[in-house]
Amino acid sequence: MTLCDQPQGTPRKAPSEDDLATLAQFRTALRRFLAFSEQVAADHGVTVQWYQALLVVRTYRGAKHISVGELAEQLMIRDHSAAELVSRLAQAKLVRRKTDPTDRRRSLVVITRAGDRRLSELAAVHLKKLRDARGVFMNFFRAAAESQ
């Protein structure tokens, strides 16, 4: 049960100094990874949001397709923002739009070969960084489990 799941009025155990230090270390590691991700994306000529969108498009439903609305939901952005994002990705030839054969009003998004290549380059760098930093993240989860 998380803090958000606890009924109101339920007494909560105050976090220890070690718990707080672990959270601070995790937050720092996460922020460093996000900053790294932004820089790597920029080095590859895309924004981190483009990278995240390519990752979702490529993996959603086994890379068959994703609607603009589903992409918005996955990225936690508004539909019109997702539509603009898809337009920019399509202009860069990283994705293409196709009409949904079951509902011609709906637009589906598919990754292109160029998008798949760009995603592969970015994902490889991100995975290496995560593997290199896994100790920091594993320590957090170990410490969190021990404090329960």
Textual characterization of the structure:
The chain is 63% helix and 11% strand. The protein is mainly alpha-helical. The model has no long low-confidence stretch (mean pLDDT 89). It holds the Pfam family MarR_2.
The low-confidence parts are none
Radius of gyration: 19 Å
The arrangement of helices and strands along the chain is HHEHHEEHH
Distance between the termini: 11 Å
- CATH first level of the domain at 44-146: which class? Mainly Alpha
Q: Beta-strand level of the residues, as a percent range?
A: 5-15%
From the coordinates shown, what is the CATH architecture of the domain at 44-146? Answer: Orthogonal Bundle
What's the tally of helices? Answer: 6
Q: Output mean pLDDT.
A: 89
GO biological process, one term: response to stress
InterPro entries: HTH_MarR-typ (IPR000835), MarR/SlyA-like (IPR039422), WH-like_DNA-bd_sf (IPR036388), WH_DNA-bd_sf (IPR036390)
GO molecular function: DNA-binding transcription factor activity
Domain HTH marR-type: 16-148
Write the layout of secondary structure elements.
Elements lengths: L16 H27 L4 H12 L6 E2 H8 L3 H13 L3 E6 L2 E9 L1 H20 L1 H13 L2
Protein name: MarR family transcriptional regulator
GO molecular function: DNA-binding transcription factor activity
Organism: Methylocystis hirsuta
